[in-house]
Amino acid sequence: MKRSSPVILVSEDEYGKFDESTNSILVKGKMHHLGISRVIEPGDELIVSGKSFIVSDFSPMYFGRVIRRNTQIISEIDASYIIMRCGLRPGMDILEVGVGSGNMSSYILYALNGKGTLTVVERDEDNLKKAMDNLSEFYDIGNVRTSRSDIADFISDQMYDAVIADIPDPWNHVQKIASMMKPGSVATFYLPNFDQSEKTVLSLSASGMHHLETVELMKRRILVREGATRPASDDLTHTAFITFAIKKSGMVYRI
């Protein structure tokens, strides 16, 4: 983590961030100065324009709510499952293909906890710059390596402990991705529709990978109000289909 001081303001449906350099908070694009002598700590309550916020330590689930977003982000429920399914932990070397606004990168860096590396391959220069700017607000990105290129043109002698790909046509690149994975490592493919998922899964076996599962994860918020508790009506239900595959070593034993 880059900072140890509290940086996030949370409420039931809105978020803000704390700017340590100016001792100010930013909520919905508006800056509010706290004053030079004001010190805030986790658990403190701040009333901003009549709305109550609680000060919280940073967590990657807040990242996508307070950054400048230039693309649709991977949701916190999807990102958390990806981290667990891939077994990401400190000391690993991770390859991320397609960075967007950096939200998935935030979860990866949080899991690495400063130990290991994250290599980001992104062909869009603007996306890459914005993602790195966003990440540098909350992390020391000294262990992040970037390559502005298409995965087809990316060259690396590194063998990765996990690969996370958020690109529209992974079936065209699974052979390349598999060639950079350690045996037993897991690849994740994040795709919005059935056709893309089907093409990706059908391409795996020819690349030395074994399909583990394809899932769709849904989060249902409940609005708790006295005498009127009910599900939220404005939630986004479908985010994406997520395919997981494990790299085979090539060794087969019959028992």
From TrEMBL:
Keyword S-adenosyl-L-methionine in annotation: yes
Keyword annotations from UniProtKB, A to Z: Methyltransferase, S-adenosyl-L-methionine, Transferase, tRNA processing
Annotated binding of S-adenosyl-L-methionine, by residue: 122, 150, 166
Any single Pfam family the record assigns to this protein: FKBP-like_N
Record-linked PROSITE patterns: RRNA_A_DIMETH, SAM_TRM61
InterPro entries according to UniProt: rRNA_Ade_Mease_Trfase_CS, SAM-dependent_MTases_sf, TRM61_C, tRNA_MeTrfase_Gcd14
GO biological process: tRNA methylation
GO cellular component assignments: tRNA (m1A) methyltransferase complex
Molecular function terms, GO-annotated: rRNA (adenine-N6,N6-)-dimethyltransferase activity; tRNA (adenine(58)-N1)-methyltransferase activity
Record domain tRNA (adenine(58)-N(1))-methyltransferase catalytic subunit TRM61 C-terminal: where: 63-226
Presence of keyword Methyltransferase: yes
Protein name per its UniProtKB record: tRNA (adenine(58)-N(1))-methyltransferase catalytic subunit TRM61 C-terminal domain-containing protein
Classification lineage: Archaea, Methanobacteriati, Thermoplasmatota, Thermoplasmata, Thermoplasmatales
